[in-house]
Amino acid sequence: MTSGWGELLSLIGRRADLLAAILGGPARKPDLVEEIGVSRSTVDRAVRELEDADLIERTNGRIEITVLGRLSFASYLKHRREIARMMEFSDVLTHLDSSAPVPHWFLVGADLYRPDPPAVHRPHARARTELEDVDRIEGLTKAITDPGVLDRFADAIRDGTLEVELVTTSEVLDHIVETRGSDLERGRRNGWLALYKYDEIPFGLLVADADSPDERVLLFIYEDGHLVGVLQNRRQQAVDWALSLVRGIRHEAEPIEPIAD
Asked: With respect to CATH, is domain 5-79 assigned 1.10.10.10?
């Protein structure tokens, strides 16, 4: 048996090809030599190491994975996918503050939209598409990088076709009031818009149509007020996490009351 989790992780990484080869069922050594494409001595050594760690066992001349081996290998593959996705998104993630509360698993199953030339408006276009026909939005925003989205929100809120609960910064709030104040004020009075002020927002985060088959999360990453990436995730776990974060911040935020008639 290996002496610790670090040694076990190293072993699984070194012998991942053999574990993958027997994951679907028992196999004989000659078959593994041919499938993996290594020497018989390499297979012999790998089998000994994995057997000593209780990750595999031999029965009637066949090698099969144990329950411990199957669970450990599944965990190894899961975390390898997470790390690979982090590396793939690293150029955008570096723009987040080190304390930004993004869970490691959020990236798995997420799509990233960057402003890569010549499609520099791709993140904005994706956000507009994802928010085109939604009925309800809960979220956080720390910048207005696409006036078109603000106009779409304001028009829909004014017409009563969209409900929004939004936590934003003092600066963004002032901009909203200055540019679309009358339309938004009407929405607030009619109960279609609720605004909150909070100046420690870690990133933009919108949850669209929660508790519906079309629910989704959009996470907006900024650098000096410019949008450098939009992460989209439709997994239930991502929606639940985003709602919890948004509602937790909203609970601490200052509600903005409608202006009295």
From this structure: yes
Phi (first) and psi of residue 112, to 5 degrees: -110, 130
User: Looking at domain 89-256, which of 3.30.870.10, 3.40.640.10, 3.40.920.10, 2.40.30.60 is its CATH number?
Assistant: 3.30.870.10
Give the C-alpha separation, 37 to 19, whole Å.
14
Distance of alpha carbon 208 from alpha carbon 248, whole angstroms: 17
Residues 6+ apart with CB under 8 A from 257: none
Nearest C-alpha neighbor of 167 from the set 186, 142, 192: 142
* CA 58 to chain CA centroid, nearest Å: 40
Q: Tell the residue number behind the tokens 């329950």, with chain if given.
A: 67
Residue from 68, 44, 74 nearest 56 by CA: 68
Taking residues 125-137, report their average pLDDT: 89
- Residues pairing with 57 in the sheet: 64
Q: Which two tokens stand for residue 191?
A: 């109960």
| E runs forming strands in the chain | 56-59, 62-65, 111-113, 136-141, 163-168, 193-197, 204-208, 216-223, 226-233, 254-256
**pLDDT (tens digit per residue) in 176-225:** 888 877 877 888 888 888 999 999 999 999 999 998 999 999 999 998 88
Single out the residue of 188, 121, 122 nearest to residue 153, CA to CA.
Answer: 188
Full-model pTM: 0.81
Residue spans of the domains in the chain: they are 5-79, 89-256
How many CB atoms within 10 Å of residue 13?
A: 10
Closest CA to 78 of 109, 113, 46: 109
pLDDT at position 261 over 70:
no
